[in-house]
Automatic annotation (TrEMBL):
Domain Tripartite ATP-independent periplasmic transporters DctQ component residue range list: 60-197
Name of the protein described by the UniProt record: TRAP transporter small permease protein
Short name of any one Pfam family annotated for the protein: DctQ
Entry keyword set: Cell inner membrane, Cell membrane, Membrane, Transmembrane, Transmembrane helix, Transport
The UniProt record lists the keyword Plastid: no
UniProt-listed PANTHER family: 2,3-DIKETO-L-GULONATE TRAP TRANSPORTER SMALL PERMEASE PROTEIN YIAM, SLL1102 PROTEIN
Membrane topology: Multi-pass membrane protein
Species of provenance: Caenispirillum salinarum AK4
Region feature Disordered, mapped onto this chain: 1-31, 204-226
Amino acid sequence: MTNNTSRPTDPEAYEELSDTDAGQQPVDRSGQEGHIRTVLDFAVAESAKVFAWLVFVGAVISVYEVVMRYAFNNPTSWVHETTVFLISVIFALGGPIALARDKHIRVRLIYDWVGPKARRWLDVVNSIITFVFLSGMTYAAWIMFYKSTHSPLGVIQLERSGTSWNPPFPAFTKTIILISVAVMLVQTILHLVKAFRGKGYDDDHGGGKGKGGGPGPASTTLGKEG
C-alpha cells in the first residue's frame, strides 16, 4: 500500500498539516519531537539540507590532503584550516536547526504526565528561561564578533589565523556564532508567543495524560529544547 501524503513545501501549509493527523482531526503536537512550530523554524530546518553539504566538502578536501601528502609528498597549507572552519560552521548552525526541529534534549518525566494546559505553561516557562540564557549568549557573541572584526581603534580589521596561509576564518567563525545564537533568540521569542497564544494546546489527542493518569502517546518522544 502506498502513502500519497506528500510533505508540503509551503511553510504555512506545513504548519497546518503538523497540527492535523493525515488531514483528519486536529492533533495536539505541541511538545512532540520534530514538531515545526513557526515559519522561521521551517526555513531554518530546510536550510539544514544545504548546510549539510559542508560536511561532504570537508570530507572531500580531507581526502585530497591525504592523497597529496602521502602519495605526492606535497601537503597543502589550506585544507586543515578549511576543514576546521567548515565543521565549526556546522557545529554552530546545529543549535538553531535542532531548535527548529524541536530536537534539543530535556527530561520529559513531568511534561508527559500533565495535560495540554499544563504543558502549555511548561513551554512558557521553558521559553522564558531559554530567552534569558540566549540573550546573554547573544550579547557575549556580539562582543566576540566585534573584537574579531575591528581593531582597538574601531577600524574594520578581520582577525586571522596567524598561519602561513593566514585566512580570516576566526572572524568568519565568530560571525556565524553570532548569527546562530541571534536566530535561536528570535526562534525562542516566537515559541514563547505561540505558547502564550495557546495554539495547538487545546486538544488532548497527541500527548498529556492518558487513561488512568498515565502518559499519552507523546510519552515516547525524547527531545525538546533545553
